[in-house]
Specification:
Layout (H helix, E strand, L loop, with lengths): L3 H15 L4 E6 L12 H5 L6 E5 L2 E5 L4 E5 L5 E5 L9 E7 L3 E6 L6 E5 L7 H4 L12 H8 L6 H5 L10 H11 L12 H20 L40 E5 L2 E5 L6
Antiparallel strand pairs: 1-6, 2-3, 3-4, 4-8, 5-7, 6-7, 9-10
Helix pairs in contact: 1-7, 4-7, 6-7
This protein binds a DNA duplex through loops.
Length: 271
DNA sequence: ATAATCACCTGCTCGC
DNA sequence: TGCGAGCAGGTGATTA
């Protein structure tokens, strides 16, 4: 599920419900996530009030003043607001009970996600320190992509998905952005011109902001924090369309593997 | 430093 | 209907 638009959708869905509320209790039913949920996390969070809910890359940060909770949703995680007595479903791993009869519930079938404690809040945590700029900020540009890609031989798609270059571009949106920019995913990153990287940066911004505006992409059963599904999947132009005609020129889209990830492109439009 | 592979998990779909 | 193979939104760790 979660690339940047899905995490942002979750943040927007959840934040209004929990901001300003005091945490009464944290129940960890299954600590074995990607990294174990720290044993001292519940005690550190209980009694604190949620100051704000922010996002860095695909991490969701719940600021509690003197410390901060850091969620990652991995491949299959989601956060939702439920009433306190709502029966637990399979793979509901953590409940955060807040005053006002609100529970924030974390579910993650594959357990690739995590819940960690930043004490105190810091951008210098090992998971956050090496992240590139936010794609929707002014720090991100075609010039940046061009500069960082010189001498690099790996495929431009792999380069674009490197979170040290720019954060938040996962497999779906990498495919979509390269399609919009007319760049073949296999092209060595160091061979792409500045002009084409500017088109790619524009495409990344467009694809991500469109997806956020539509509530994220729902594959299988993603729902945002408000429980509503995303609708962006109805507008996917490349991802998942291997073998089908290009929407621009009708040429059959090709599907290949790049770094173990499905990559779809139009052999005619993307060079 | 860069690039390729592995690993962590469960669930679903496909082909036999 | 059952069963194994392969694949899925991510990304840190480990190899060359």
């Amino acid at each position: 599920m979660p690339e940047l638009p899905e995490v942002e959708t979750t943040r927007r869905g959840v934040a209004p419900h929990i901001t300003g509320r005091k945490i009464l209790k944290v129940n960890v039913y299954e600590p074995r996530l990607r990294w174990p949920v720290p044993a001292d996390l519940p005690a550190a969070a209980e009694g604190k009030t949620v100051q704000d809910v922010t996002r860095r890359a695909k991490y969701l940060l719940i600021n509690l003043g003197e410390n901060e909770l850091l969620f990652h949703l991995g491949m299959s995680g989601n956060l939702r607001i439920v009433a306190p007595e709502t029966p637990r479903m399979k793979h509901d791993h953590v409940d955060i009970l807040l005053e006002g009869d609100i529970t924030l519930r974390y579910n993650d079938p594959r357990r690739f996600g995590c819940l960690l404690l930043l004490n105190p809040p810091t951008q210098e945590h090992p998971l956050l320190r090496h992240l590139g700029p936010e794609p929707l900020s002014d720090q991100f540009s075609g010039e940046l992509l061009y500069k960082l890609s010189r001498q690099r031989k790996s495929p431009v798609k792999t380069f674009l998905m490197d979170q040290a270059i720019v954060v938040g571009v996962g497999n779906i949106y990498a495919n979509e952005a390269l399609f919009l920019a007319g760049i073949r995913p296999t092209r060595p990153a160091g061979e792409v011109s500045l002009k084409r990287y500017q088109a790619l940066a524009d495409a990344v911004r467009k694809v991500l902001s469109d997806a956020i505006n539509m509530g994220g992409t729902t594959l299988r059963d993603f729902v945002g924090g408000d429980g509503k599904p995303g609708y962006f999947q109805q507008t996917l132009r490349a991802y998942g369309r291997g073998g089908q005609p290009c929407i621009l020129c009708k040429t059959e889209l090709k599907e290949i593997k790049l770094g173990q990830r499905a990559s779809v492109f139009c052999p005619s439009c993307q060079r």
